[in-house]
Amino acid sequence: MNYQDQHNNEMGTTMNRSFPEQLTDHVTVFGNDHFRHYLVGEYQEVLIECGVTSSVRDFAEQLSDSARQGPEKLLAMHAHFDHVCGIPELKRHFPDAKVLASPAAARVLDNPKVVAGFFDQDRKLPGRFETGLSEAPAGRSPQPNRIPVDRTVSGGDRIALKGGGDLELIAAPGHSPCGLAAWFERDRVLFISDALGFPISEDTIFPVFFHTYRPYMETIEKLAKYPAEVLAFPHKRIWQGKDVKAVFSRALSAAQNIREEIVSGVAKGRKLSDLKQMLFDRFYREHLRTYTPENIRLCVDLLVRRSIEDRCTDNAHPS
């Protein structure tokens, strides 16, 4: 059985939400369980999470069926392929929509080499997520060299919404240096992007401190202070009500435990290749199989590298 067949067998029964879904009075969820798009505001004018090419096709069809207007603003939460490769397709459907991203994300999206790598991953999404962008099918957006950003935004900025209320943007480093989260106080919804990790299953979170460990932990602690009643993840789960606080605790523990396991293994002389294989075997399952094995091996490599860097910081500044 090849990778794509195995993926289709494992993932075929997981699409258990109905899209679009009215999450709160002023937030609607589109896309699919693996890549979500959130329309926010009384007039639904801001789209949070730009997803991948195939999820935008789902979004456009769902939006048309629901007879809603298209978004006026597209908020890219951070510059990783599964959060920005949908932008060209979104612009094809909604050419007047403005792309918003952090200054650091804008610089990444202006790099042709990085953008080419992003769309290589976008093309490799298996099964129903396969995009085929390299051939630029009729009526589809060709692969761009850059993804232009119309307006840069930063933590502390607010996006005013037409029907009242606003989105408070929050700097969320750790997973990536360009990360943002967003707080919609009117409906008590916190859009966290990947700041808390990737929910593989109901009870397992894959830590994703790919840039730096300490800021990742600090970001989770900062976000936990918001009185959220809904945690809007871009992938798989949406947590609500009494489950919200537990998710923050779970995300902190997951990151701390992995970091300590890696540091301890290195201290005991364990081979890095063995540590990486152990982590890959543990986490590459269920919803993480949306991504290619090569992608997740790179992610595991970053977790090991950042854990070792953090240990070196401890050694350089003993208490």
SSE topology:
Blueprint lengths: L2 H9 L9 E4 L2 E5 L4 E5 L5 E3 L4 H14 L6 E3 L5 H4 L2 H7 L4 E4 L1 H7 L2 H13 L26 E2 L5 E3 L5 E6 L8 E5 L4 E3 L6 E2 L5 E2 L6 H11 L6 E3 L5 E3 L2 H25 L4 H12 L9 H24 L3
Parallel strand pairs: 4-5, 5-6, 6-7, 11-14
Antiparallel strand pairs: 1-2, 2-3, 3-4, 8-9, 9-10, 10-11, 12-13, 14-15
Helix pairs in contact: 2-4, 7-8, 8-10, 9-10
Pfam families: Lactamase_B
Protein name: Metallo-beta-lactamase domain-containing protein
InterPro entries: Metallo-B-lactamas, NDM-1-like, RibonucZ/Hydroxyglut_hydro
Question: How are the strands ordered across the major sheet?
Answer: 1-2-3-4-5-6-7
Separation of termini?
53 Å
Mean pLDDT: 89
Q: Give the structural class.
A: alpha/beta
> What number of domains?
1
Low-confidence stretches: 1-15, 127-139
Q: Work out the number of β strands.
A: 15
- The proportion of strand residues reads 15-25%
Radius of gyration: 19 Å
Organism: Desulfosarcina alkanivorans
Pfam family, one: Lactamase_B
Protein name: Metallo-beta-lactamase domain-containing protein
Domain Metallo-beta-lactamase: 24-235
